[in-house]
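Example 3.2
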Amino acid sequence: MSSARPAGLPHVDAENPAVLVLPGPVRSDEVPGLCDEVRALMEGSGARVVVCDVGGLGPPGLAAVDLLARLELAARRAGGRIRLRDPDPALPALLDLVGLRFQMEGQAEEREPPLGVEEAVETGDPAV
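Structure, written as tokens:
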């Protein structure tokens, strides 16, 4: 049995996105509840992105990597993704090391140059 999706685009509040604040250190028995919260935020708000405030997680480690991977999986299963807010400076490097890519709040998306950067071509430059 399936239910029909509402017509049109879902209402997404770009000014106030759905936010999940992750408390410092998360125990493994708390992970399923946080995954349920991500799914509930997506279903309740119609948002396709949930911002996870990871500032309170403390120093990054493999437990944080596991948590974020599970939250991303829960979001993907619900048809969306997560974006990280206020990560420890070492967290993006650790995530990259294990092969996980997350969008960080405040970063330019891939394929988009940062604001104020203009690309120019000199007339004598060889074609690449």
